[in-house]
Structure formats: structure tokens, C-alpha cells
Amino acid sequence: MAKLVLFLTLLSFALCMAATSPTDFIKASCKATRYPELCVECLSGYAGVIQRDERRLAHSALSVSLARASSAAAFATKLTKVRGIKPREYQAAKDCIENMGDSVDRLSQSVRELGHTGRAVGRDFLWHMSNVQTWVSAALTDESTCLDGFAGHLMDGNVKAAIKRRITNVAQVTSNALALVNRFASRHRARNP
Asked: Which SMART domains does UniProt cross-reference here (predicted)?
């Protein structure tokens, strides 16, 4: 009888583990974000790395945000070289490049800082996480400020549309990364009061 109970317990555990695959973990975690479909789309390719680890999930989300921010900054740089760009568009694009450079710097800092949380406990963990949360929030502000430079009807056109599309995507990915960082921090605090 004891062997049967042990077998059923192990079988139940195995079925539960199978039901919570890394992809299921990502989908469930992404429900805590503002853009869950985009979250799943961006992170599913990292399921093998993430497994069911909240820190790896947050790290992957930050890495995706960093890559997209770098790509958007490079894209904005290319747009400044387009023939026929209006002076106002040129200046807004230059300001955007500066803002996105700041965003890239802050996201890079965040990725490095999150790496320091691996062995950190107590106040050390809280300090590192506070830095990450602050820098990711600041990166989001930088991305929003980039878009502000293109406000108004005088800026309507292809340059505005192209930059707005790219930067909006980066801001959504960064928002998702911040939500996953916050989720990781609060769950870690709950497990380690």
C-alpha cells in the first residue's frame, strides 16, 4: 500500500511539473504585464534559458528590452541621414537618439545589477533590486520623452510614424520588463522576509 501511495504521489508530481513547462511559466508570468501577448512573443524563444526561474525571466525581459532600445536608437540615427528630412524632424530625431542612448545605458546597468542579485539576501537584495527598478523606470521615461519630441501636427509624416512605431514597441517591452522585475522582487521578498 505504501508503494502505491508513493507511486501515485510521484505520478501526481510529474504531471504537475509537465503542466508547468517553461512556456506555461512564461505565459502565466506575462499575465502580470500590461502587454501580455507581446511579453509571451518576446520571451518564448528564451524558454530553455528561463525554465521556471523568476530571476532568469526578469533578466531575459531586460535583455530583450535592451536589444530593442539599441536597435531603435540605431534606426533613429539612420533616419537623420534621410534626404529631405525637415529641420524640426531632424532635431526631434537627434533628441530622440540622445534619449534612447540614455535608455540603453540605464537598461545595461539594470541587466548588470540584476546579475548581482543571485547571491544577495536581505538588504543587499533590496538595494540591488531598488537600483534595477529605478533604472528601468528611468529608461521608460527616456523612451516616452523621445516620443514627446514628435508631438503636434507639424511633425506628422513618415519620420514621425516610423520612429513612433519603433519607440512605442520598445516602451511596451520595457514596461513588461519592469512588471516582471517588480514581480520577481515582490515574490523574492515574500519568500525571504
From this structure: PMEI
